[in-house]
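Page header: ASSEMBLY MODEL / four components / 1360 residues total.
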Amino acid sequence: MKVGVIGATGYTGHELLRLLRGHPEAEVVFLGSSGSAGRDLREIYPGLPGEWPELTAAEPPPVDILFCALPSGAAAERAARFLAAGGKVIDLSADFRLRDPADYEVWYKWRHPAPEFLPEAVYGLPEFYRADIAGARLVANPGCYPTAALLALRPLLLAGLLEPASIIIDAASGVSGAGRALSPDYLFTEINENFKPYGVTSHRHTPEIEQELSAAAGQKLRVSFTPHLLPVTRGILATIYARPRPGVSEADLRQCWEQAYEGEHFVVLLPAGVWPQTKFAFASNFVFLQLKLDERTGRVVAAAAIDNLVRGAAGQAVQNMNVMCGRPEEKGLEQLGLWP
Amino acid sequence: MKVGVIGATGYTGHELLRLLRGHPEAEVVFLGSSGSAGRDLREIYPGLPGEWPELTAAEPPPVDILFCALPSGAAAERAARFLAAGGKVIDLSADFRLRDPADYEVWYKWRHPAPEFLPEAVYGLPEFYRADIAGARLVANPGCYPTAALLALRPLLLAGLLEPASIIIDAASGVSGAGRALSPDYLFTEINENFKPYGVTSHRHTPEIEQELSAAAGQKLRVSFTPHLLPVTRGILATIYARPRPGVSEADLRQCWEQAYEGEHFVVLLPAGVWPQTKFAFASNFVFLQLKLDERTGRVVAAAAIDNLVRGAAGQAVQNMNVMCGRPEEKGLEQLGLWP
Amino acid sequence: MKVGVIGATGYTGHELLRLLRGHPEAEVVFLGSSGSAGRDLREIYPGLPGEWPELTAAEPPPVDILFCALPSGAAAERAARFLAAGGKVIDLSADFRLRDPADYEVWYKWRHPAPEFLPEAVYGLPEFYRADIAGARLVANPGCYPTAALLALRPLLLAGLLEPASIIIDAASGVSGAGRALSPDYLFTEINENFKPYGVTSHRHTPEIEQELSAAAGQKLRVSFTPHLLPVTRGILATIYARPRPGVSEADLRQCWEQAYEGEHFVVLLPAGVWPQTKFAFASNFVFLQLKLDERTGRVVAAAAIDNLVRGAAGQAVQNMNVMCGRPEEKGLEQLGLWP
Amino acid sequence: MKVGVIGATGYTGHELLRLLRGHPEAEVVFLGSSGSAGRDLREIYPGLPGEWPELTAAEPPPVDILFCALPSGAAAERAARFLAAGGKVIDLSADFRLRDPADYEVWYKWRHPAPEFLPEAVYGLPEFYRADIAGARLVANPGCYPTAALLALRPLLLAGLLEPASIIIDAASGVSGAGRALSPDYLFTEINENFKPYGVTSHRHTPEIEQELSAAAGQKLRVSFTPHLLPVTRGILATIYARPRPGVSEADLRQCWEQAYEGEHFVVLLPAGVWPQTKFAFASNFVFLQLKLDERTGRVVAAAAIDNLVRGAAGQAVQNMNVMCGRPEEKGLEQLGLWP
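Prediction written out in full:
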């Protein structure tokens, strides 16, 4: 597979290059960057060994897959142009994830420049939409928080086991999720030995989570979603609270997960009592899940852990590439997480 | 004030010594330690400058206040002995926090050896129980998570603004909360770049929170409480979800906090939109609070940040000492948090 | 003492404010800031409780001491103006540390705008120049690396115990030493889980160290100095290699330190075999020292640990203020370091 | 290749399993562990997905390569037994690295139980001893610090460019180098926000470095070696000081490295002015090198960065396995380092 990467100099771009270089059947032939056109990638990342295509602001050549790793808002037009020219795109921004263009105005505060592509975009969560992804020419790679939240919640809502209005998602992410943005908020000195909520009640991943969970529940639902910033580079943990429908037992919930994820290479249902840790997933494409029904309060507590740059971005994109190109889904993604 | 510290070699003991040495009117005259009797404190903590009393397993001499910084379960008998001899005790363990001895059997899995002291123990949260603390001879210094959760929630429940059954407390703590215990779980290699829930539905601080909130609400209530372990040394953040009673507005909630904490030196109500960060409280006795009513979901989200070793343990103990001994409450605790 | 702080919004400024607020005899009456004039300090640092003077770009009023915490190059003119008006200044930049104006051109790449003040500036290392500081109206507060290196080396060179040409200083600093500068180099993501040398053979603290050591040795000497960036917020460790003069024993070296630092409150000579850790000094004004003569190689290895923001900047400035104003030197600086 | 791992539950064992599982031509058929015999590996490391052989205290079956990841002192007898039975061993402890059995008594404080195997053990640094490794049945995998130091220094000494008596190695390592040992020294609380030297003048890697550098220099030499403990999980940086022989220029030194490492896949000579960072090597088998001749002091400063668990242990072991089994040396080790 010949592939190109636009937005190659960001953290997501770098992670794509790391994974693609380790993929036995992928070859990176194009590196797009508007800000660093003409430079050698190793000037920007001197720790990257080996040879790489020169960074360029030019349009990509025909490739099997174009990965678009531009910031949300900057991706739509660029991806649309390549699609119009007949290419296949995996877009890692939010620009094709929401079906309703109005949601972009409400949550992202901009007007979508290519809404005509929204209907055909496939939401790239392979465990749920594998067949559609296989036939898609435009895949919207899910957000990092939604990936964790949906892998935990979607099967349970689809099976009607939870009260749709009861869902609270309290999540925490490593700082790489913010990209390489320069702000005092992301300086080592202000993140180290610190922990804080942000985007309380207003984070942009909220409508994405609600869209997918509403579809699963068969009714419009709203969730409370509070992200926090962790003093780690990588990792997302979502801790989830919900009320089961009357009569639903912990065994029912577990069985639902087991059926939904039977044979899924990347989903690890931990033994009862063992809770996910972000480090379990560090640098790997695996997701780790656990839940418990608290008889005292009647609430179920669930948790999901992923690496936000792998399963929450570049790894899931490579997984989607494998599906779109008819390769085994785990190809190039076999690496286990690092420990310690 | 002449004071003694039992359990001087643990982290809480060390923090007490740090604060007491900086207190202009306190003098540490006794250091109790069963495991390190006869040793010089600086063998254990070579970074501690200055002179210190020798560590001893002997009974403390008469002092104005005896701080008991032993682990939960080990404190009760020791403290009871000193009380019986006529002394005043601030106990930093959980051994005198719960009013119902049966709760120790359920949550702590041991039988209380001195239940006769439970009725007179005062729960040492000065903003709530100042007058009782002033007259107490036994103060049960609150747990770290309960301190954060109660400072956020108690006034709101006391004022009847929240649905008692709706409370979810999702909290995260630095590793110093676990003390100096030797377990692979607390090795740098397994905490660094990691984040995980623990004690899900079973953490021992749950009955303590419920006891105090039930008293405030005037009815028995249960909370969902999920602690997490942060890769930081110090700091607790509690993120709290609840449903306001019908008709309660965000302004009502804010006003309740403002009235409850008017003139309180250590409580900082942040301006709207500025959320607490654990680092705001780093190495200080302050607590930082914020809340928001989410009109979309009808839930209020609140957050509280403290330093678990200061406000969550040794600092609050010194604050209690000041109250018990008629000193200004902030004496020796004026230090601002470190930044960065 | 009424004091003012220019450059109040940087990390050093913040640390000065933290220490001065805790000082029982100092009152901060002026906060200068060109970039944030007119703002409330708590907009910039919302974790700072209490009331503060408004930030202003105006000239400071008469005060007992003006602390100048501007970047090197920006301080000289500002400080000179205040001096010319009859005030006393403690300058925390490098602008008055070097006696030879030509050194600024070589190492700092700019021409000194007020060289006429260089002869009277006193190098503010109280253990060495206490008497001069007491009578000074302009004190050049030492650099962070030089403070650590000089406290270890100066007595040994003054006593003629080391070969002047043999000195190698391998040092590491926390990131707060870089201030609040916005660069990808200081993002959490690129510092966390990383360690690197920088400024190899060219760091600006080199001439400062050489100036003071040359004066001690009575001859012009040059040192190899390699700073590294640590993934910590605070702390400097200098590991030093040198050849003792023929016949010098480890006991001679230790005795030299003991005599030089007898009665010095802030200098801790650790017991043999216990090596300094940056955390010993965390948030305190103490310096921790150790050395060993390696009979196999004939080299002495020494180490010094400080907190770069306290003893390496704001704490030493307050220590100088105490000396200049006739107060006990440790006033307001009694706090022990944090552990853990 | 069928391989076994003894000492599978330590960090080095885990890292071997991670790399071997990602190796397309290796199959792990045996997991030895005396302390955890009979257990499932995933009880110990619940983040490890997939199936693994049961842990056993039994003797390994015949395999192509047996990796011995036991602590130094525990490996010799075990490895010797397998060798005696006709197997091939890569030993990751220090037990076969030193040629002179007396060195074990001096530096390790124990008597070597199988000195008869020392003469045939090949020091497993492939860039230097590739041919010998290819024919060996016992490879002594180098220590982590020696790997970094030797890759920087050996070619320069072999070429006679440095004064043999002038070498100082100041190095820092992540905490994983200490293994999973339970000691307060390795608790998160005591490592986080800390940095310290240890084993000053007495670290066990000293004789290993001296043995290899003496061989290169053609004369017995001694080095000053000071290790430090970094608050990171992985990574070693060695900063090295030496005096070049008279007349040697920086260009000579660079040219020496270029010739020594021409065509070497895993050695990255960074462009002038770009210094190694441990993070460049994070989770990869690459080593990054840089040097500079300081005309002011006449000393050369060099630096080398590796991942201590990959290039400093398990990765180099897999590299050796590839050489011993006639596979391309980079097989299974192609992964680039993580960034960020």
